[in-house]
Amino acid sequence: MESPLRSEIASTADAVAFEQAVIRAVHWLSRGDVVALPTETVYGLAACAFDGKAIERVFQVKGRPSTNPLIVHVAEEGMIGDCAAQWPASAATLARYFWPGPLTMVVPKRPEVPDAVTAGLDSVALRWPGHPFMQAVIRRLGRPLAAPSANLSNRLSPTTAQQVDSQLGGKIPLIVDGGACSVGIESTVVDLTGVTPRILRPGVIHLGALAAVLPTIQTRSTESAMGPDQAQRSPGQLARHYCPRSPLRVMGWTSEDALTQEIQRQGLEPKDVCVLCHEVLPAQSSWMRVSIIPNDPEAYARALYAELHQSDQLAPKMILVEAPPDSAPWDGVRDRLQRASGVA
Ligand code: TXA
Ligand code: MG
């Protein structure tokens, strides 16, 4: 398929614009093309899940290895049955409490789901997104949409239409602007194909919330304990997946003086460094940029990628992030920061 020189950016700011954007998106998707659409987590690069050629195009546009499976987005009960060969009781429970929303469930797949979507696995990852635009497009098209995050492979996921445009502009016909994403990091992924439900990717729906309705749920094994086979089962879980271009480090500090000394010890000056902090806030103006992020896991997740994008654009010698708390509600944020720093 030919690439347009510029992507059309469609607004959804009022009811008429929303409806026109739905029509534009369905037009391209039904022709087998891929478009960027807003979801509540991050923007997605969407294609009809049952159109093998369109799925190939998703991998091509992102530069994504074909071994990394895609999440399929549904918005009607019947679509679950079109994709899943089994719907375990654990899935029904989690769906009752957390769908529509930022939760993805891996279940046995039906043969009709193209192998390209699932990277040849016999399971499929399903999510019923909460964003009204994504729901409207899926219902109008009448088909589920496969959609990875709308970034180039190994780069930061976009949480605004402008960030999609800066990575994929000109490669796809349409980017729909649904505003800043309200969740801000990718969905929690839970594997329900085994005896024990397991979190493969942490997110804002965290262990405590999941365990309240599904007490048997476990976290994934730690990365160091993860053998190559397991890593292959969910390749998005490989270290260094969500990356800014500048090196990123996560550390704690007790005062601005201690922080400055640590930076100088590494041969850097504050003006070389962008700082993201939520508790011990540097006051001096000598830093390249200081982002103060709310000290609350959900508000932090909402702000994180936008702050990383903006810091990264300044091409600092280092992005330094104040280490977040160790508790379960922060698991998703800690996971993305570890990956961005390449030490997960
Ligand atoms: O919030 C989200 O989930 C966003 C929005 C667009 O919905 N999508 C997203 O997609 O983050 P992506 O492709 O960037 O991440 C998909 C994750 C990867 O970690 C992948 O390995 C895992 O889901 N995954 C997909 N299918 C799987 C399967 N059958 N078994 C295990 N993991 C799977
Ligand atoms: Mg991604």
Number of domains: 2
Stretches where pLDDT is under 50 for at least 5 consecutive residues are 222-232
Q: Going by CATH, what is the homologous superfamily of the largest domain?
A: DHBP synthase
The chain-level structural class is alpha/beta
CATH topology value of the largest domain: DHBP synthase
User: Mind telling me which CATH architecture of the largest domain this is?
Assistant: Alpha-Beta Complex
CATH class of the largest domain: Alpha Beta
The 3D shape can be described as globular
Task: Work out the radius of gyration.
Answer: 20 Å
Number of strands: 15
Question: What does the model show?
Answer:
- The chain is α/β, with parallel strands linked by helices and 344 residues long.
- The protein folds into two domains: 8-225, DHBP synthase (Alpha-Beta Complex), CATH 3.90.870.10; 248-341, Threonylcarbamoyl-AMP synthase, C-terminal domain (Rossmann fold, 3-Layer(aba) Sandwich).
- It contains twelve helices and 15 strands.
- The protein has helices at 15-30, 52-62, 77-83, 89-98, 115-118, 132-141, 161-168, 207-213, 228-233, 256-265, 297-313, 331-341; strands spanning 8-11, 35-37, 44-48, 71-73, 103-108, 123-127, 145-146, 174-177, 188-191, 198-201, 218-219, 248-251, 273-277, 289-292, 318-322.
- A hairpin with a 6-residue loop joins strand 9 (188-191) and strand 10 (198-201).
- The longest helix has 17 residues, at 297-313.
- It starts with 7 loop residues before the first strand and ends with a helix.
